[in-house]
Amino acid sequence: MRPTLTDAQTLDDQDTLADFKAHFALPDGMLYLDGNSLGAQPNAAREALDATRDQWRDSLIGGWNQGWFDAPERLGNLLAPLIGASEGEVLVSDTITLNLFKLLGYITESQERARPIILSEGGNFPADGYIAEGFCHSAGFEHGVLPEGAALEEHLSDQVAVVVLSQVNYRTGQLRDMAEVNRRIHAKGAEVIWDLAHSAGALAVDLAGSGARYAVGCTYKYLNGGPGAPGFVYVRSDRQQAGWQPLSGWHGHAKPFAFDADYAPASGMTRFRTGTHSALAYAPLEASLKLWQQVDMAALRAKSLALTDLFRACLADLFEAHGIEDITPAPAQRGSQVGLVQREHGYAIVQALIKRGVIGDYREPGLMRFGFTPLYLSHADVWHAAEQFREVVESGEYRDPRFQTRTEVT
Ligand SMILES: Cc1ncc(COP(=O)(O)O)c(C=O)c1O
C-alpha cells in the first residue's frame, strides 16, 4: 500500500529530531533533497559569519589570536565525536583532495616506500582516483584500480601500500563494512584511507570501533558547513608521529612564527596543516558543528532509513511502467540517499523537479540522486517530494525541451 500523507505525518509526530528543522534556513516552498551535495544553512551559521565579518572589521590582525588561528584543531575536536574519533585525532583543513595527497605521502614515507602500488577504486568519486594517480606520477608509485564490485583479495598483495576507499559510494549510496574491510586490508600489511564525504553526518561513523587509521572527508554536505567549507583529515593517535606529510606548509611547522629556514613537522595533527586558512570559512562550520553536538546519531540513522524507505515506497508502483530502476541498496548497506536510474530521461526528470522546487541532482549515466538529511527534512516533506516526482513522470512534463538543456553543474 502506498503511504498516505497521514502516514507521513504520524511518523513526524514520533520524530525525536523534528525540532532541528527550525534551526535551518530553507527557501519557502523548496523541498531540498540535495544535502548530499551541499547542506542547508543553519541559522547559527549565518550569525557566526556576520560576527566574524565584524571581527575582521574591528580586530583586524588581532582576530588570529581570538580563535582564528587554532580553528583547525578546535573544529577537529568538535567533529571527532560525530565520526567515532577522539580529541586530537581530527584536523579541519583544506579539502579532501589535498588531505588525500598529504596522507598518501605520510603513509608511504612511514612504510619506507617498500610497497610500490597505490590502489584506488573504480566507480568512486573521480577526485580520489585522480589524486592517487597524481601522487603516483610525482612520487614514483604505481597506480592500480580496484574495479567496482571486484573482490578486494584479488587485488591485494604484499606490493600494495595504500588503498583509497569511500565508506559510502557517491553514486549508488552503497555503504561498506568498514571494520571488515579494515581487517582484511590490514591483514595484508597495507593501509586504508577512508573517504567519508558521503558518510560523515549521514550516519554514525565509527572510526575507532572499526579499527580505521586514516580518513578524510568534507563538511559542506551533510555537516552543513557551507559552500567550499574546509575538509578534514583523521589520523589515529598512535599513527601521528610518523614523519612528514608532503605539503609541508608553514602552518604545519613545529614553530611557524620562528620563521626557521628548515621545515620541522609540528606534533600531532597540526603537522597536517598547510598554509593560511580562511577564518571566514571556519565560522559557519563551527556554528553547525555546535548544533551537531546535540544530535543523537542512532536516531539520525533510524530517521535516514525511514526517509529513504518512505520516498521509495511512495514511488514503487511507478517504476516499471516508466523504465525506472531503483538501485538504492538494502538498509544495512545504504548511505543516506536514494538512487533511481532512468537512462533516457533521468536528466530531464531532475530538471523538471527542480523547476517545481524539488531539488535533487543527476549523475551520468541516467542516475537521479536524492539525498536525505534527517535534521531538516520531515517525513511529510518527503511525501510531498514523491508526489511531485509522480506528477512529473505521469504527466510527461519532463519531455518539455527546456528540461533537455545541460547546465554546467548537474
Ligand atoms: C566522495 C567524494 N570524494 C571527494 C570529493 C572531492 O572533494 P573536494 O572537492 O572537497 O576535495 C567529493 C566531492 O563531492 C566526493 O563526493
General form: globular
CATH class of the largest domain: Alpha Beta
**CATH homologous superfamily identity of the largest domain:** Type I PLP-dependent aspartate aminotransferase-like (Major domain)
For the record, the count of structural domains works out to 2
Radius of gyration: 22 Å
What is the residue-mean pLDDT, rounded to a whole number? 97
Describe what you observe in this structure.
Strands 4-10-9-8-7-5-6 form a 7-stranded mixed beta sheet, with helices on both faces. The chain contains 12 helices and 15 strands. The chain is globular. With 410 residues, it is an alpha/beta fold. It folds into 2 domains: 5-17 and 296-403, Aspartate Aminotransferase, domain 1 (Alpha-Beta Complex); 46-292, 3-Layer(aba) Sandwich (Aspartate Aminotransferase, domain 2), CATH 3.40.640.10. Helix 5 links the parallel strand 5 (117-121) and strand 6. Helix content is 35%, strand content 14%. Pyridoxal-5'-phosphate (PLP) is lined by residues 95-97, 125, 127-128, 166, 170, 195, 197-198, 218, 231.
Write the layout of secondary structure elements.
Elements: H1 5-13, E1 24-25, E2 31-32, E3 41-42, H2 43-59, H3 71-79, E4 90-92, H4 96-110, E5 117-121, H5 126-139, E6 142-146, H6 152-155, E7 160-166, H7 178-187, E8 191-195, H8 207-210, E9 214-217, E10 232-235, H9 279-292, H10 297-315, E11 325-326, E12 337-341, H11 346-355, E13 358-359, E14 361-363, E15 367-371, H12 379-395
Residues 95-97, 125, 127-128, 166, 170, 195, 197-198, 218, 231 line the site of pyridoxal-5'-phosphate.
